[in-house]
Amino acid sequence: MNKNDLVIKIKKCFSTIPYPKNQKIIYKQEYASFSLEAIKVLQGFQNKHWKQVSWKDILTAGSYALTVLTLEGFNFYLPAYMISMLQHFDQLVEDILVESLIDRLIPPKNMFSLNREWPEWDLWRKEKFEGLQKLTYEQKKCVRLFLECMDEEHNEEFFDKDYDFGEIEPSNYILPSPALALELYWGKV
To answer: Which of 28, 39, 87, 94 is most buried, most CB within 10 Å of its CB?
Structure first.
């Protein structure tokens, strides 16, 4: 499926997803009182349907938005992210937005047990991923098609960077790639 057809399919499949109330867009509205990044997220998304959110709004909100969006907020704005990345990949890849979105679509290594070294990380991943189960079958197929497109057209973008794992052993961290997301879950949808 070409990008233009996929954009049309995403718009159709996500057209009925309900707008979350403004207080359900980001976790804890008090973030907005002290976090410049959370304020950017609210300014970029609040009172906007996902169809009105531009790739520039997504770039302004930054990858931080993907951590503060609630499950409802993420599911609602997911089509805006996918469409923006299909149409403006080169502008968004520089801010790790693409990798952050792909990372958000990867389930924990094991949905039924926690990583002993990083249980809070796996709990966070599990909660975020379980929220995606509220998507319809057709919406999940759109996510799969999006990941397949990213894998076919940009797979090298996800592995040609020097990752700084800090204190994390690379074997304990999943590199966010469309191929991995497809292998672990979305390829079975």
So the answer is: 39
